[in-house]
Amino acid sequence: MALTRHFKETIVSRVKSEPAFARALLEEAVSLLLNGDPETAKLILRDLVNATIGFEALAGDLHKPSKSLHRMLSLAGNPTMENLSAILVAIKKALRVDIQTVVSPMTV
């Protein structure tokens, strides 16, 4: 199911006006990556790029074509760890946040 333009505009608006929401989205994307759901994580990262630095600026920072970055963060995208790391660093910088990881023991 495709997201409506209204929904995407709401995400952009909330990211720009609510730092806690933006930070929570970034933390969720990292958590999803670490827990085996890279598809959803990439879509959240795509929304964060759109709401913060934009794909053109990100392309300039990473010296990659913006179309390649769009593909990387699509459902079918397959970014390398190097590219994914660079995207996360750029988003962290744009949001002026750090990612804190919490490791908890698994329950059996």
Describe this structure in words.
By secondary structure, the chain is mainly alpha-helical. The protein has one domain. The protein has six helices and no strands. The longest helix is centred in the first third of the chain and has 16 residues, at 19-34. The mean pLDDT is 91.
How is this fold's topology laid out?
Layout: H1 5-17, H2 19-34, H3 38-51, H4 55-62, H5 66-72, H6 81-95
Task: Quickly describe the structure.
This protein is an all-alpha fold and 108 residues long.
The description of the largest β-sheet is: none
Category from helices, strands and their pairing: mainly alpha
| Cα separation of the termini | 35 Å
Strand content: under 5%
The amount of helix comes to: 55-70%
Assign an overall shape. Answer: globular
The count of β-strands is 0
State the low-pLDDT regions, or none.
none
Give the number of domains: 1
Average pLDDT taken over every residue: 91
N-to-C series of helices and strands: HHHHHH
Number of helices: 6
Rg calculated over all Cα atoms: 14 Å
